[in-house]
Structure formats: C-alpha cells, structure tokens
Amino acid sequence: MSVFNHIGQFFLLLRAAFRRPEQWRLFLRLTLLEIDKIGVQSVGIVALLSLFMGAVICIQTAAQIESGWIPVYTVGYTVRQTMILEFSPTIIPVIMAGKVGSNIASEIGTMRITEQIDALDIMGVNSAGYLILPKIVAAVFIFPFLIIGSMFLGIAAGGMIGELSNIIPLADYEVGIQFDFRPFQVAYALIKTVVFAFIIVSVSAYCGYYTRGGALEVGHSSTQAVVYSIVLIMVSNLLITQLLLI
Amino acid sequence: MIRVEGVSKSFGEQKVLDAVDVNFETGKVNFIIGRSGSGKSVLTKCIVGLLEVDEGRVLFDDRNFTVMSHHERKSIRKEIGMLFQGSALFDSMTVEQNVGFPLTMFSDMSADERAERIDFCLRRVQLDGAHKKYPAEISGGMQKRVGIARAIAMNPKYLFCDEPNSGLDPQTAIVIDNLIREITYEYGITTVVVSHDMNSVIEIGDRINFVNAGRIWWRGDKDDILHTSNEELNSFVYASDFMRVVRQNLK
Predict the structure, then answer these.
(1) CA angle in degrees (0–180, nearest 5) for B243-B247-B251
(2) Mutate which of B82, B85, B155 to test chain A, going by most A C-beta atoms within 10 A?
(3) Is A116 close to B102, i.e. CB distance below 8 A?
(4) What ipTM does the predicted assembly reach?
C-alpha cells in the first residue's frame, strides 16, 4: 500500500473515531480508565527519567564551564531551558511512544486478529470511536500534567545534584533557574506535548486497527507504531519549533 | 428471511464469490458448508456487512442492507447476533459484562433489568455461576456458550455462527449444536451456520447450502445430502472414513 493510501486511511479512521459516542457515560468511564493506564501508570518511569536527566544535564553543563567569565548560575539556567524546551516535552513523549504506543498497537491489534473488533462492528458499535477516542482524549488531557511534573523534577534534581556534589551552590542554581524566564516557553512546551500525545495514540491505534494476520503481525504493528510515532514526533517538533519560537 | 441476490466479491484479480444467490429461511438452521477457501466465510462477511459486496444485494426481510448507509445499517445490526469461530469475547470484561455489553450500548434497560436479562441469557446457555469470570478463566466450550449468550442478549432476529464447533470435543460440540437449534426454534430466528463439520450438519441442519468455487453448488436438506449424486458434494461429505461407513450402511 502506498504512503498516500495510508494517509487517506489514517484520516478516515480518525473521522470514524471522532463520531459522537453512543453512550456518553460509558465514554467518560473508558476515558478515566485510559487516563489511569496512559498517565497514572507512567508516573514512575517519567519521574525516574526526569530526575536522572536533570541531574546529568547539571553535571554536563558544569563540566563544560571552565572559564571564569561565565557566571556559575548558567548551570541552573541551562538545566531549566533544556528541561522545559526539549527534554521534558520531547524526550519523555519519545519514551512514552515506546511504552504507551506499543501497548495501544498490540492491544487493538490483538482485538483485530481475535475478531473482537468485528464483534463490535456487527453489534453496530462504532469500533473506532469506542476503542480510539477515549485513548486520544485521555492522552491529550494527561500528558501536559506528566510533562509539567517532569520539568519540576528535572530542575529539582539538577539543583540537588549540584548542591550534593559541590558543583554549584543552591543559591546560585536558584538564580539561574529564575534568570530570563519567559512563560511563553512553557506554553510552547505544552503545545508540543499535546501534539505529541495525539500523534502517539492516533498513529499507534492506526497501526493496531489495521493489523492483519496473527501474533507475528501484532508484534510488527507494535514496532511500526513506535517507529512511526517517533519519526512523526521529531518532524512535528521541528515544525512547531520553527512556527512558535522564531 | 435473508435473501442474497447475485453477490460477487473479488480481492484483486481473485474472484472469491461469483454471483451467489441463496435464501436463508426464518425459524430454520441454515448451513453454509464447503471446503476451506471455498468462499463461505467471505459470503458470511458480505452478508453481515463486514465486507462490502462488488455486485448484488443482501436483503434482511426485504430491507436492502447493501445500499444502506453506515448509520441506516445500525438498525439491522442491532437485530443480528453473531457467534465467532474464536468466540471473540472481550478479554478485559467479565462474562456478565460481555453478555451485557450490547444491552449497555443499545438498550434503555435499568441496571436491574440488565442484570436480570444477563442472568436469563447465561441460564439459557447453562452457565450459571460464571458471571464474574474472565474469558481466559473459562474453557473453550464455555466461551462459545458465553458467545451465544451475548448473541441472544438483544433478542436477535438473525443469528450467524461461524464455525461454532471448531476446537471443541465431540460432546461439547453437540451441546453447542443443540443450543443453536433450540434457540432458533424457540425464538423463531433466522440462523446461518458456517461450518465444514458434517456431524453438525446431520445433527441440526434444516437447509444446507454447499459452496464451491465461489458459487452455491448445491442446496437441499440433510436427507438429500446423504443421497446426493453431486460429485463435488459427495467427495466433500464422504471425505472421512466415518462418513464412508455411514454411506455403506445407508446403501
């Protein structure tokens, strides 16, 4: 199938997914379950990664600054900027593409090959809407909270490692993280996050929904979901950055 | 009654169904039999709308399903129950949630009425006490029975069963066959069973349609099928030693 076929089929699937839910109460319940699965169950890995990323950026930045002309608070400034602009809103979604994306693709793919999606269709249920829309809504809602948490943890971990290993005093680090703060950059990061959340869920759901064959193909769909999601995250990252920051 | 008129379906260059005409009678167990790859599953998928037909039409009690929009088809879909080859139960739901799923989606029943209906359907398939179990925790035969309970939950007018006995031992297969027959007669529904299990055909088949090379090759009832002179059908029916012994005895 050509790329254009895939693109067309992807948008047709999205159109079906965005039809009005048959039962609003059920839709709300499914969305809450997905918030738990996609968001709450990812808090641990997001926190762990953010702590280590913040700490490593702090050490690496300090290691680069040897000249006495560069103020030491630059370390705090760099950690803040790196976490807010790129690491939290981009690297965390890339990791989430691996965790959540593969899970969604394999879940929906397995439902496809075991005829559960056919069963929904025959009952008259809009299978795309029932399976995909709650996941999209949940991810778009919960990702910004995860990313804001990641920013705070990364910046805090940078300060902590700087103080504990005598790289930078906490007071200087605080000066750095407050220096030239532009709130729009947080908005930019959250806009990126929402777009990436949408990409991860919709692309993974697409890969799963059109799985054909057996267990081998479910694995293939799962891999495809992660690869396509990451590629699209990177491309859209460039576009959004170009549009919003320059 | 379901009427299939001149239905053709191709996948690329390969023509799987070639102008198929067949009627499925109300209150009867109608079989579609044939070899693997003969087109019987494609025919069923075309009838229930999982595949779009290239030519021809499918009428559910004179309502032309083929030309209906997605939205219009919903009203007919709510009248269809289907038992899948692998049961197709929702893994993440318990037995009672599976049976109650169509009721939750499409009925205005209160929670109590829904629970009562679920109890009734599970009792009807002799599955009392399995309400809280997940599909992975019950046997293949029980899964089929849950599939039947889910299929009848909405009081369907049409019941489709795709290879209902595959993977079951002979005794359990007979239990499933009998359930299908009883439900068909009890509710007067139009039942279509896709199978290549001759035991089932002889056991419960009222009308039998033999599909070969994408066409209805032969049609009749279970008495006719044992005495047919149709060569293709004979080689299908009497493929096993057991059936050849049956033929000897018939002679």
Answers:
(1) 170
(2) B82
(3) no
(4) 0.87
**B10 domain-assigned:** yes
Cβ of B72: how many Cβ atoms within 10 Å? 13
Q: Is residue B23 part of a domain?
A: yes
Measured in angstroms, the CA of B213 and the nearest CA of chain A are apart by: 23
Model pLDDT for residues A183-212, shown as the tens digit of each residue: 999 999 999 999 999 999 999 999 999 999
Whether residue B132 lies inside any domain: the answer is: no
Q: Which of A114, A127, A135 would you mutate first to test chain B, the one with the most B CBs within 10 A?
A: A114
Going by their DSSP bridges, the two strands B55-60 and B2-11 should be labelled as antiparallel
pLDDT digit of tens for each residue in chain A (246 aa)?
788 999 999 999 999 999 999 889 999 999 999 999 999 999 999 999 999 999 999 999 999 887 778 899 999 999 999 999 999 999 999 999 999 999 999 999 999 999 999 999 999 899 999 999 999 999 999 999 999 999 999 999 999 999 999 989 999 999 999 999 999 999 999 999 999 999 999 999 999 999 999 999 999 999 999 999 999 999 999 999 999 987
Number of domains present in the structure of chain A: 1
Give the number of domains in chain B: 1
> Domain span at residue A87?
23-245
User: By C-alpha distance, which of B176, B149, B25, B151 is closest to B81?
Assistant: B151
CA distance B114 to B92: 19
Torsion angle of alpha carbons B154, B116, B185, B42, nearest 10°?
30
Asked whether the beta carbons of B217 and B230 are under 8 A apart, the reply is yes
CATH at residue B194:
3.40.50.300
Task: Tell me which residue in B74, B84, B91 faces A124 most closely, judged by beta carbons.
Answer: B74
Sheet of B215-220, strands arranged across: B80-83, B158-162, B190-195, B29-33, B207-212, B215-220
Contacts of B85 in chain A (CB under 8 A): 115
Query: What domain range is B44 assigned to?
Result: 1-79+190-251
Facing A124 at nearest CB: one of B78, B85, B88: B78
- For the segment B175-217, what is each residue's pLDDT rounded down to a tens digit? 889 989 999 999 899 999 998 888 888 889 999 999 988 899 8
CB contact under 8 A, A124 and B106: yes
Interface of B with A (CB under 8 A): 48-50, 73-74, 77-78, 80, 82, 84-86, 88-91, 101-102, 104-106, 160
